[in-house]
Amino acid sequence: MKPIQVGLLGIGTVGSGTFNVLQRNQEEIRRRAGRGIAITMVADLDVERARAAVGPDVTVVNDARQVVANPEIDIVVELIGGYGIAKQLVLEAIEAGKHVVTANKALLAVHGTEIFAAAQRKGVMVAFEAAVAGGIPIIKSLREGLTANRIEWIAGIINGTTNFILSEMRDKGLDFDVVLKEAQRLGYAEADPTFDIEGVDAAHKITLMSAIAYGVPVQFDRAYVEGITKLGAADIRYAEQLGYRIKLLGITKRVAAGIELRVHPSLVPAKRLIANVEGAMNAVMVQGDAVGTTLYYGKGAGSEPTASAVVADLVDIARLHTADPEHRVPHLAFQPDEMSDVSVLPMSEVVTSYYLRLRVADQNGVLAKVTGLLAAAGIGIDAVLQRESEDVGGEGAPQTDLIILTHDTREGTMDAAIAQMQVLPTVLAPIVRIRKEELA
Amino acid sequence: MKPIQVGLLGIGTVGSGTFNVLQRNQEEIRRRAGRGIAITMVADLDVERARAAVGPDVTVVNDARQVVANPEIDIVVELIGGYGIAKQLVLEAIEAGKHVVTANKALLAVHGTEIFAAAQRKGVMVAFEAAVAGGIPIIKSLREGLTANRIEWIAGIINGTTNFILSEMRDKGLDFDVVLKEAQRLGYAEADPTFDIEGVDAAHKITLMSAIAYGVPVQFDRAYVEGITKLGAADIRYAEQLGYRIKLLGITKRVAAGIELRVHPSLVPAKRLIANVEGAMNAVMVQGDAVGTTLYYGKGAGSEPTASAVVADLVDIARLHTADPEHRVPHLAFQPDEMSDVSVLPMSEVVTSYYLRLRVADQNGVLAKVTGLLAAAGIGIDAVLQRESEDVGGEGAPQTDLIILTHDTREGTMDAAIAQMQVLPTVLAPIVRIRKEELA
To answer: Where are the active-site residues found (chains A, B) (predicted)?
Structure first.
């Protein structure tokens, strides 16, 4: 059987990784897939870079539409990124009856509904293992490996840049700004790191996992997104003293009232495996009603780890494209006519526990006043850590840090209580609030 | 479309879990699979137990052949276990053109070649996710998620009983025999725990993963198998002092000369995620040339975790049975006519590093003598831990424990050096040798 013909749109980091992995392991991949998989055409605006990457046997063009329109091409791999031209090209490839493989989480989290519907109409596959957690086969695990389960929640470290920054902040006791510069110097953070450090990238990924877990459409616009830019080294230290680590988690949870979908820094018990995922590594925890807790760990980015997922999708398509389209694995795990419309909850309705840090005047009665307000709001206290005033220093009247861990509380209730505490004359600075997840 | 009809052979722990999960989550499973999945017939020697487990709507028989012969049944789930009647029934089901799902690692590790060949001839699937690591989708991850990779090695904690025992020995400083009795009382170890504690169960599982990773036939008879019965609390303590944990690992590795396939207690650096997998949990590390290190963690046994894998296989079959048989995912990841015959190496050819514990007379010159012998054999020393003699007690002349960590060494070379050290007059007891894996 002749090799399946692949056209690549964009040959940057992941594109060249994909080309290299397919070349290097072509013999083993053919033995697995039952037929060869060959990249025969590449489109990139930088034709010289592309030519250098793929050598003389591959057709290189600077117009992606030539790839999409080529009847010889069976599968289009979209590695351009973003919502603009990438969306147009993916839709045109689908219209041309081609299967599509993409690593574009932003595109699918925002326009997935339209794209999957188009693919369904044309009977082609849109595969996107590379869009979430790089080489970790988490989409496959959720969509195929855990089909027996009612998924209860997913919590993931799904952005390597922010996990690297948090690991460094903790190891070296440095503040966010300092570590970000270091991360940029080392290539772990981009020149414009906004999507990573503000949690947007993680939100794209948890949006896709949420849809797959619960059989709901992608709803990125309903996700709560909070990054790590406001985290202080002090909070990481206090969390440690209380037995926790701070991680940027993407979380989606099924509760009676609907679905939680949120990204924010979270305290996680230090003894959990996921709390020990360091540096740029990714890990996803999945809780299913039958299987219990499972965890998937690996490199979430980089040339060949991401290529590993792209090529796995190519092999899937090579293996399974003969299946009756209605019986292939559905794009979002559930059959398209079987999606439910459970709503994503507003953040005020989310129930979780909290770490609070209050910079207070070091005088009698402050703790009583603060805990009295919490009690009046019906918020239970799990632990209190009051620092000696010499621990935190400060000029003028003595100040100290008061750290409180709460029990589970509705976020709306917590917001109101924080507003009340904030106006106390003995509270001297904006209250720091970080959510806490027990993940058990 | 009418539900796919499933016949269950054996309704013990896993069988009743499978029935319960399919019942409880039937609506979600149908939305995922595109059609219902119904257990309509159950065979068990204990008809009353079976009847109590499944209720009045399911046909219960005591003769498994009635299930296998029933033309209404699309898929047979074999949960009898062992090599005897289970093998016969699986082959008969295949002959009758039925797909088979099984959790029987022993059967497939020993007779897999014959069974997969029969399935291939008849164009049916034999699915066995539940045979390895319970609910963790590790077979799917290896066979489909990591197809881009040249797999370099796999190392897994794939027997919950032994991991529970080792965790308890470490936490409580107790000896093997004591903890085994406790594990039996708690139901973590069977009345006859031989297959678990001697490493046979783990060897069945690593044999299956090895075949899938490298595209070789199952070769259980070539596996090296060593259990945990001879481990002392002292070795666990010394390992800890050197920064290691002791785990029973199933290991398969591709090296230039062939394939390593082995199960034995191993020292693992304490900072590795897998070293922190405690109690009855399972975890599998996979090293691929493109993806790097990945890890999969979850419950490796139990009623519903194992049922999670059985039902995932049922959904896979419901989804994909319309695919051209030649294009379905191959049983052992590689197409059947593309298997290679790389040989499994004898243990003497395996290269790894070692922990040695020598009970020696506490006198001058012993360390020099021992290290001299190692140097003469070309064995490099990574670390030495010499205990104060009062640390270990003892009657008569003072004795002490001498612990040595070596660099990588051929096992045959190590065996010869141990034999030489053993006959030194200052070596007072059998030398303890535990292999060490850096897993990096």
So the answer is: 205
